[in-house]
Structure formats: structure tokens, C-alpha cells
Amino acid sequence: MSISSQNTQDLTANTTEASLTERRRRRRERISVSLRYCLLIIFGLIMIYPLVWLIGASFKSNNEIFSSPWFWPKEPTTQGYVDGWKTSTPYTFGHFFLNSMKIAIPKVIGTAISSTLVAYGFARFEFPGKKVLFAILIATLLLPDVVTRIPQYLLFRELGWLDTYLPLFVPQWFAWEAFFVFMLVQFLRAIPREMEEASRVDGANSLQTLIFIVVPILAPALVSVCLFQFMWTMNDFLGPLIYISTVENYPVSLALKLSIDATEAFNWNQILAMTVLALTPSLVVFFMAQKSFIEGISTGGVKG
Amino acid sequence: MAHLSLKSVEKVYGNSFKAVHGIDLEVAEGEFMVLVGPSGCAKSTTLRMIAGLETISGGEIWIGDRLVNDLVPGKRGIAMVFQNYALYPHMKVHNNLSFGLKLKREPKEKIRNATAEVSGILEIGELLDRLPKQLSGGQAQRVALGRALIKQPEVFLFDEPLSNLDAKLRASMRVRITDLHKRLRDEGRPATVVYVTHDQVEAMTMGDRICVMKDGRIMQVADPATLYERPANAFVAGFIGMPEMNLVPVDLSWSESGKPLLELSGKGVAIDEGLARRIKKKSGKVQLGVRPQHIEVTTPNADNCFVATITNLEFMGHEINLHARSGDADFVAVISSERFDKSLQRGSKVGLKPVGSKVHLFDVDTGENISLASVDD
């Protein structure tokens, strides 16, 4: 009897201890989760604050920008946008946006088409020297951009392409960006070949298979290629700086710098306002593309 | 529709691995030919060579009276159903069906009629506006079948089309495909079919003839009954039939009365029922092949039986698989549940008497069946 009561006591003690440990464990977990999220929020805010400040400051007057680090304007004004849009040149900012598009659109289209063709070739066809060529392609990924700047400049000068947009997008028509080719090759490798084989049995040739079968399946990857290329083009400063010399042909990135050069006392509110506008196309394209990312065609036609 | 013939077809890969060793195969017009074999026997490679998805290293492939070696898949007059369906994921079912016809620039009216007819036959009319990802496995396989059917090809190629389906669906699709084949034959447009599978049940139930392959070679081409009753070699004998045929090395000698004697662990068993007339090789080491269904289980002291100890009993419902060991040899015998002696259990001694008319003897070196000399069973 006494033994059994002893056992019962032990059991109760064990149970209490177990629930105590469990409670401690939960409390520790709660604290750890709260800490993690606090840290994430703080770092997130630090990262995003400059952008928030930029948008806020674009509605401040020129004097207020430097008087307060807080992002919210005391006396909100759109004067920065109005004056900034006019610019100090004979052209409005809209003109420069148009110039940017004249570079970005052919560049994006060219990149998408040429990278797909080259990636399809590498991913799906056997040809002599394939491995060596692919190795060279990957090697160019590691090559710093700067190395090719001077020879390229000389080449384009010989072709008489200076102060035109051609040097800025023609190379992209020849799958110039190894990164995109590599990305598409990897994506293609993950797609089962049976669908392409089925289309060949259905009577499609390689090009028809590419257009009707591969490209639609590849769409999510192509969207990211276009997105990256568009954003990089909008942000590209060095390229236009080297090749474009007349103000009339300046894209947005150069035009922004222009407003800093043009006057002695910088109108920071105008610069900031135009910077905000310069960001918009990239953001709009990004959010549009994000939607199709999510709706991206899943490979539901193949089991496995 | 057309006949298909493979003449000394070879496949050698870049690393000089020879996958297919010069095979010859004739598939008659309207015939349902099944290629069956264990994985790695090059049955799919052979099919893909017929389709034109793999290049041919040697030999000739004829579809009808056309040599198709150098034709692209689309020009060979074939249609193929893939194991994983391979439907175009971004196209609705009706576009999946009509893609081939659209590429051929067939008139819209014809495409519409063909789609309606095929979706009627396969009962996929309600699925026409769905995307492949909205289909179940069985539905997707039917659409894949429809995509082949709509082209009215000369030869249908199936590459393990049912292996992704569950057992029940597989059984019903099996019936559906054979029914379809019969229906087309009855309608006067017989379909020549080459069907690849590793499943012997599919092979036996579906094929007019079966081609058993191993390591890139054809082991035997015959109708299901012949394969089962008169296997050309030990491989075919072991591959076809469930449970597997018992293959046991024995010594063949002859009794004074001229009956073949099979000796296993010192005990000779005389086999009657015409085996003597069928045997080519007259004595020495041979491999005895007898199906589990063709072993009578008797008492251990009965005449002319192998004495064995029961190692396991598997109750299958209507029958019992009896596993027994005699010396170094393992046997499986199938007994119907009603005739099973309930006193038998693991460790019991039994007599195993092969039914003479069903016994096969194989050459131990080549595996060739040496008991096919004349047909008298």
C-alpha cells in the first residue's frame, strides 16, 4: 500500500514537472519569436526608411529638406514636381522618359527573344563543342563589365553608332547577357521533355515547338528576365553616359544628373521629385509582373 | 493503317554502349503488339526509335511501304501516348486534341468534327474547356489517348501509358484501350499498335502478340498462350506467369523403360506424359521449369515426387501459395483453397509431383527450351 502511494506521488510529481517544463518551453519560444520579429521589423524599417523619406521629401520645400530628418512634410507642396518636370533644358521630363523607353523596350524584347533561342539550343540540342561553348558562356558571367567597355566603345565608334541608342540595345539582340541564358537553361532543364516530344510527334518542327510549347511553359522565367532587364536598363547610368552625348537623347538616369549639374544651388526637391517619378515605371512593371508570376503556368500537363 | 517492320535495328549511344542489338520485328496491320521486359531491356528505346525521338544507329524501320529512318516524328504517320501524359499544360483540352491538326492546317470544320468524334468515343466531351491541371489522372490519360486517336495515324505507340494510374483505374483503362482497338477493327479501320509495358498482366491481357525483350535483344515473339505454354527460353518462362515458374537445376537421365528421370538431391523422379518425345538433349545437367500451378502436392512417400519441407504458406483467398524446399532447391506450388490439406503447416514434409505434360527443360548454359521438339501436350 505504502509503495503504491509512493508511486502515485512520484507520478504526480513527474506530471507537474512535465507540465512545468512544457510551460517554460512555450514561454521561451514566445520570447524568441517576439525578439526575432522585433529585429526583423527594425531592420526592415531601416532598409525602407530612405525610400519613404525620398517620397516624403519630394513634397517638401527646398528649405525644409535639410531642416528636418523626419519624412513627413510640414507644408506639403507639389512645386518640386511641377518645376522638376519642366527641367532646365528645352525638353520636359516626359521627353527623357520617352528616351528611356526607346532603349528599354527594344532591349527587353531583344533579350527575351535571343536568350530564349540560345537557352533552348543549349538545353535541348546536341551539337559539337556544346560543353566548351557553354563553359565559355558561363565564364563571361564572371567577366567584369568594365573590361569590355573600351573595346566596345572603339567598336561602336567605328560603326558610327555614337550618340545613338544602338550600342545600348543591339548587343542584347545577340543574347549578350549570359546570366539570362544561364537562368533559362536551368529552368528548361527542370521541364520534362515529353511535352516537346509530344509536339514533335504532333508534327511541329523545332521552331514551332519552341513558340507553341516551350515559350508558354517558360513564361514565368521569361517574365523575370524581362523584369530584371527593364529595371537594370532604367537604372543604367554608365552606358548612356558613355554613348549618349546630346541632351536631346538623354534617358532618365542622365537627365536626373543633369538637374544637379545645371544650377549652382541645387533644387533638391525637384531632383527628389523626379527621382520618385523615375522609380515609378520599374515599380509599375514589377507589380504587373508579380501578378503573372503568381498566375504563372504550372506544369500540370505532366504527372510527376 | 499499315504494317510496321524493324529490320536489324540497332541503337548505340555516344559512349559506345549498345542498347539495342539488331532486332527484327514484324507487326502486322491492325495488330496489337506488346513490348514487354524488365526495366533496362530497351523496350522504350525501341519504341522511341520507331517514333523518331531517338536516332537509329543501324538497320531499317518501315511503316507501310515507307522507309522512315530519316523522317522526323511528325512525318512518320505515328501517334504516341506517353507515360506521364505529356499534355500541353497551357492549352485547354480541345486545343491539346487539335494541336496536331492545326499544325497540318486542316480546315476548321474538319478539326471541330474530329474533336467531337474523339471526345465522344473517349467520353471527354465535358472536359474540353479544362486545363490539364484540372484533370484527374484517368481523365488526363484519356485526353492523351484522344490526342493520338484524332490524328488517325498509321501506327499507335504507347509508352507505359497506364503505369501512373492506380490499380483500379489501370484495369478499367486496360479494358477501354483493348475495346477501342477492337472497335476500330470492327469499323474497318484497324489500328496497328505497339504498346510498351513492364507489366505482364497488361501484356498478356492486351496483346495480340507479345515481344519479350531482355538487354536489347528479343527473347520471343508470340501470342500470349504460346508464351505461357511454350516459352522459348528460361527467361521468358520466368518472366511470364504469376507466381514465377519454378526453375531448378536437375540431372537428366533415362530409366530402363525409357522414361526421363530428373534427379534432385539424390532422388530421381520419372516424368511421364510424353516428355520423352519432346526432349532434344538426352542427358546431363538441365534446368527443370514447372509452373506453380502444375505441381501436384502429395504425400512425401508417393511415387515420382520430390520430397520437400514446407517453408511458408501464403493464403491468397481462393488459392494457397505453398513454398517448399527440397535440398538446395526452392519450389512454389499453387493449390486451390478447397483442396488444401489443412493439416499441412510450416515444417511439414510433402511430395511435389510435376505434371509431366507441363514440364519444361532448359539448357543450363543457353537457357534455351529443349523440350519443344514436338507438339504433343
Automatic annotation (TrEMBL), chain A:
<keyword id="KW-1133">Transmembrane helix</keyword>
<keyword id="KW-0813">Transport</keyword>
<dbReference type="InterPro" id="IPR035906">
    <property type="entry name" value="MetI-like_sf"/>
</dbReference>
<feature type="compositionally biased region" description="Polar residues">
    <location>
        <begin position="1"/>
        <end position="19"/>
    </location>
</feature>
<feature type="domain" description="ABC transmembrane type-1">
    <location>
        <begin position="97"/>
        <end position="289"/>
    </location>
</feature>
<feature type="transmembrane region" description="Helical">
    <location>
        <begin position="103"/>
        <end position="123"/>
    </location>
</feature>
<keyword id="KW-0472">Membrane</keyword>
<feature type="region of interest" description="Disordered">
    <location>
        <begin position="1"/>
        <end position="22"/>
    </location>
</feature>
<dbReference type="InterPro" id="IPR000515">
    <property type="entry name" value="MetI-like"/>
</dbReference>
<keyword id="KW-0812">Transmembrane</keyword>
<protein>
    <submittedName>
        <fullName>Sugar ABC transporter permease</fullName>
    </submittedName>
</protein>
<feature type="transmembrane region" description="Helical">
    <location>
        <begin position="209"/>
        <end position="232"/>
    </location>
</feature>
<dbReference type="Pfam" id="PF00528">
    <property type="entry name" value="BPD_transp_1"/>
</dbReference>
<feature type="transmembrane region" description="Helical">
    <location>
        <begin position="132"/>
        <end position="150"/>
    </location>
</feature>
<comment type="similarity">
    <text>Belongs to the binding-protein-dependent transport system permease family.</text>
</comment>
<feature type="transmembrane region" description="Helical">
    <location>
        <begin position="170"/>
        <end position="188"/>
    </location>
</feature>
<feature type="transmembrane region" description="Helical">
    <location>
        <begin position="33"/>
        <end position="55"/>
    </location>
</feature>
<keyword id="KW-1003">Cell membrane</keyword>
<feature type="transmembrane region" description="Helical">
    <location>
        <begin position="271"/>
        <end position="289"/>
    </location>
</feature>
TrEMBL record, chain B:
<dbReference type="InterPro" id="IPR015855">
    <property type="entry name" value="ABC_transpr_MalK-like"/>
</dbReference>
<dbReference type="GO" id="GO:0005524">
    <property type="term" value="F:ATP binding"/>
</dbReference>
<dbReference type="InterPro" id="IPR027417">
    <property type="entry name" value="P-loop_NTPase"/>
</dbReference>
<keyword id="KW-0547">Nucleotide-binding</keyword>
<dbReference type="InterPro" id="IPR003593">
    <property type="entry name" value="AAA+_ATPase"/>
</dbReference>
<keyword id="KW-0067">ATP-binding</keyword>
<dbReference type="Pfam" id="PF00005">
    <property type="entry name" value="ABC_tran"/>
</dbReference>
<dbReference type="InterPro" id="IPR013611">
    <property type="entry name" value="Transp-assoc_OB_typ2"/>
</dbReference>
<protein>
    <submittedName>
        <fullName>Sugar ABC transporter ATP-binding protein</fullName>
    </submittedName>
</protein>
<keyword id="KW-0813">Transport</keyword>
<dbReference type="InterPro" id="IPR003439">
    <property type="entry name" value="ABC_transporter-like_ATP-bd"/>
</dbReference>
<dbReference type="InterPro" id="IPR017871">
    <property type="entry name" value="ABC_transporter-like_CS"/>
</dbReference>
<dbReference type="InterPro" id="IPR047641">
    <property type="entry name" value="ABC_transpr_MalK/UgpC-like"/>
</dbReference>
<feature type="domain" description="ABC transporter">
    <location>
        <begin position="4"/>
        <end position="240"/>
    </location>
</feature>
<dbReference type="InterPro" id="IPR012340">
    <property type="entry name" value="NA-bd_OB-fold"/>
</dbReference>
<dbReference type="InterPro" id="IPR008995">
    <property type="entry name" value="Mo/tungstate-bd_C_term_dom"/>
</dbReference>
<dbReference type="Pfam" id="PF08402">
    <property type="entry name" value="TOBE_2"/>
</dbReference>
<comment type="similarity">
    <text>Belongs to the ABC transporter superfamily.</text>
</comment>
